[in-house]
Amino acid sequence: MDESLVPMLKELRLPAFNDHHIALEEQATQSAWSYRTYLGKLCEQELARRYQSRISKWTHEARLPQAKSFDTFELQLLDPALQKKIIALRDNSQCALEADNVLLIGPSGVGKSHIAAALTRQLIEQGVRAKWLSATALVQHLQQAKQELDLMAAMTRFDKFRVVVIDDIGYVKKDDAETQVLFEFIAHRYESGSLIVTSNQPFSQWDQIFPDSLMTVAAIDRIIHHATILEIDKDSYRQANRKKQI
Prior knowledge:
- The protein is built from eleven helices and five strands, in the order αααααβαβααβαβαβα.
- The chain is of the alpha/beta class.
- β3, α9 (about 175-190) and β4 (about 195-200) form a beta-alpha-beta unit.
- α2 packs antiparallel against α3 (about 35-60) and α7 crosses α9.
- It starts with a helix and ends with a helix.
C-alpha cells in the first residue's frame, strides 16, 4: 500500500498530501491524533498549496507593474482623509465583489498608478481575479477585435476578471474609433464588473477624451456610479518624497 500511495496521490493531483503525509503521520502518532484530525491537517496543507498556486497564477496573468505594492508606497505622504479611503479599499474586497469602481484622479507623479497596482495586488491576494491594462493597450486590443467583427466576444472575455484596471485613460486620443470602443467597454462593465481607472485629467477635461458631450457624460456617469473617487491634488508623491530626502 505504501508503494502505491505516491502514484495515487499524483493521479489525484494532491501534491501537498504527497509532500506532508509522512511528516504528519509521525506527528499524528506522537500526538495520538484521530484519523479525522490527521486527514484535516493534510487537507489544510493541500488547500494552502492550492491557494498559493492560484494567487501566483492570477498575479502573473494580471500583468501588474513590477515592485508596485503597499510595501513600496509611503502612504503617510498623502492627506489623512485620502489615506483613510485607501486603507478601507485595501482591507476590504467587497467593492470588487459588488462591481463597484475606483477612480484615481490627479496630475502626473502623484502615485495614482502605484496605488491602483497596490490595490489590485491586494485584491488578488484576497481571492479576486484582476487584469491590468494601459488605456491605450486596451483600446488597441478592442479596435482590432472590432475590425475582426469580434468586439462583443473580446469584451466578454474580460468578464472572468472581477476587476479590470484602465491606467492613464487621459492618454487615449480624441478619435471616434478609439473612444467608441472605450465607451462600449465601460458600458459593458457597468454594474457587472469593477473598474479601477487612473486619470491625469479632472472630469471637466474629459471632453478631451470623448468626442461629444453626450458620450462624455454617459462615460463619467457609468464610472462614478457606485464608485470611490480618490482625488490627489497636493504635492505629488515624488515631489514630497524628494522634499523628505533633502
